[in-house]
Amino acid sequence: MQATSRRVSSNQAGLHPRLAELVRKHLAHAYRPPVSPHNLDAYARLRRGMHAQQRPLVLDSFCGTGHSTETLARRHPGHFVVGVDKSSHRLARGPQPDARSNYLLLRADCEAIWQLLAADAQTLDHHYLLYPNPWPKSAHLKRRVHGHPAFAALLALGGALELRSNWQLYVEEFRAALALAGRPAARVQQLPPEVVPLSRFEQKYRDSGHPLWCLQASLAP
């Protein structure tokens, strides 16, 4: 019998009351924490891959096993697609690129990679956030992507952003955060059942009957 995923449960009924305050605070203050050696090593691999590929960059943040990265590499054959996840265990369970692949998998903290790319004035053609941990408890707003100090670095990378989640409130909060940052044209829609899943998580949530939500936005200022 196929396992059924539980729906997101939260003690938060609407947009977080501190969302605007927190986003404005992070946008007003530069986020420059020390970067750990393993993140610097991962970024060096990324720079070498960019030099070898000489293609526009696509980022698959929080890529998990990397199955989504492989799928996105087929979707964007003229791009260099980089999947980033902090778990070596998850990355070891997925496909592994070879010398002919147009994608790379990195064990690193996404926020650090965003920070390093932004510091080098690198930009993206596309950025995917596929089912990031929603941190559904109200007390965990600062752990959500749009509540984290690295949100400004994500914005600086530009490109076409696509966020998918099985928690509608997360997507609506992200849209509100983008509007606070001067990107008010984000589009949110519920994904129809016939849409091909981009990740194993999406497949699991769809098969469990969850409504799936998608945000698309241009991060150009």
List the helices and strands and how they pair.
Layout: H1 19-28, H2 37-53, E1 57-61, H3 67-75, E2 80-85, H4 88-92, E3 103-107, H5 110-119, E4 126-130, H6 151-156, E5 160-165, H7 168-180, E6 187-190, H8 200-207, E7 213-218
Parallel strand pairs: 1-2, 1-4, 2-3, 4-5
Antiparallel strand pairs: 5-7, 6-7
Could you walk me through the main structural features you see in this protein, from its secondary elements to its overall organization?
This protein is α/β, with parallel strands linked by helices. Helix content is 35%, strand content 17%. It contains eight helices and seven strands, in the order H-H-E-H-E-H-E-H-E-H-E-H-E-H-E. The chain has helices at residues 19-28, 37-53, 67-75, 88-92, 110-119, 151-156, 168-180, 200-207, and strands spanning 57-61, 80-85, 103-107, 126-130, 160-165, 187-190, 213-218. It has a seven-stranded mixed sheet, sandwiched between helices. Strand 4 (126-130), helix 6 (151-156) and strand 5 (160-165) form a beta-alpha-beta unit. Helix 1 (19-28) packs across helix 7 (168-180) and helix 2 crosses helix 5 (110-119). The radius of gyration is 17 Å and the shape is globular. The termini are far apart.
Instruction: Give the averaged pLDDT, no decimals.
Output: 95
Q: How large a portion of the residues is in β-strands, by DSSP E?
A: 15-25%
* Major beta sheet summary: 7 strands, mixed
What best-fitting shape do the alpha-carbon axes yield? globular
- Using only C-alpha atoms, the radius of gyration works out to 17 Å
Q: Helical proportion?
A: 25-40%
Seen as an oligomer or otherwise, the chain set is: single chain
> Order of strands in the sheet with the most strands?
3-2-1-4-5-7-6
Spatial separation of the terminal alpha carbons: 48 Å
Flag low-confidence runs.
none
Number of helices: 8
Number-wise, the strands total 7
Name the helix and strand elements from N-terminus to C-terminus, one letter apiece.
HHEHEHEHEHEHEHE
Structural class: alpha/beta
